[in-house]
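pasting input
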Amino acid sequence: MKFLSQLISGISLGSIYSLIALGYTMVYGIAKMLNFAHGDVIMIGAFVVYTACVTAGLPAVVGVLIAIVFCTLLGVTIERFAYKPLRQATSLAVLITAIGVSYLLQNLALLIFGSDTKQFSSVVSLSAVTLADGQLTISGETIVTIIVSVIIMVSLYLFVNKTKPGKAMQAVSEDKGAAQLMGINVNGTIALTFAIGSGLAAIAGALLCSAYPALSPYTGAMPGIKAFVAAVFGGIGSIPGAMIGGIVLGIIENLSKGYISSQLSDAIVFAVLIIVLLVKPTGIMGKKINEKV
Amino acid sequence: MAMLEIRDLNVFFGVIQAIRDVSFDVDKGEVVALIGANGAGKTTTLHTITGLLSAKSGSIHLDGKDITKVPAHKIVSMGMAHVPEGRRVFASLSVYDNLKMGAYTRKDKKEINDSLEMVFSEFPRLKERRNQVAGTLSGGEQQMLAMGRALMSKPRIILMDEPSMGLSPLYVSEIFEIIKQIKKEGTTVLLVEQNANMALSVADRAYVLETGKIVMDGKASDLMNDERVRKAYLGA
């Protein structure tokens, strides 16, 4: 029963990583850049929920909706002013800018909210479910996280594969020039990708802080890096890869915590990443298409 | 008034000038070839026309409308399609999805389906392979897909960049048959080719580009018999 319980909370944590990893992987796929400020957008999202629900006393759903809108606009703004001017620049310049944006967001939060850790109140009102004669308890947060993540992942999959803007995203990620010749607005598509990724980050932030209720300006940093690992693990640029990578990472992390050592769990997670990349450098679902020339 | 009017075009890559004072016209219903050696500026010219590159000076008019500064993604809905060099099909999408991409700016579902049927009847092989991922097609099939994809936008003028490059002789003649067919259906074609022989055989007129400048122009049949052209480009 302990194993099952660890597994389920691992899937739940992993779903949050997946939601964050989707932002990394979609942006990488379309704009060919690593948006290292993505983790901090999660933290901003959580602070917006905190301000709306705890400070202003609004209902949780309203708080989360405000956070989604806020982060979507934030993501588009960051792209417009920090990354778009660097479209022709070297990838190193873009990477350094992304790290700069990350520090900017952390320090803005520090300035506004202070450095002390806030007690986040859960956005989930579902109570825990007890199964198997009281041997297995699953928290409401865990259940909601898994359900919300599944709904988001299915919708995102349908959006990317079945709708016109989704197809445009695939075309842009493959060949920007050819996509433009089809009449696709590349800048608009990149902005849309940032909007979606950042909106998902807001949801991830609310779910993450509901499960682990300590909120500080640095809350987004570690989950951000782990989600990046998950994206690489699954094959950066691949949407199903990010989903699978995140969940696998969450399970490994939780099982290591439960059975090996909670201090070593992060080390184990990164060790697994190194092994996977040694064996399969493109990640689990990494794209490898045999192109005839 | 010519359908496509290029006037005094100058294009730079950094400090290097790729195109110098290039001017030419393409009339409605014509096939015009732009021939020249590797690096003469043929692809650069096409990229500048469709907005993938921007000109330092000069003008481009389509049906009398200035499109010099129009961004690339707005060109196709103005009736001009571009089949890029190296085909550049979307390798991970299916043949069908690639063709649908070609109709990205069009709204009417029925008309899009009519175009799809038209492309399939012109390229039966694409119909056979409609669900196959484009990256697994042969070079000649990819070229057909790139042309079919361009036709899906229902263009009035179509720019083709080296459609014969890297293809087997059998495919080369098939591709040129298709270009003749496209002309017959009333679509204007601006054709860039290194294979000057083939290009001059389908074209009405041609311009010869040398290190970014137009050095000669005239009726394709005249150029074919011109001593300098024969020496430099036709291997005679």
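fyi Residues 169-184 of chain B form the longest helix (16 residues).
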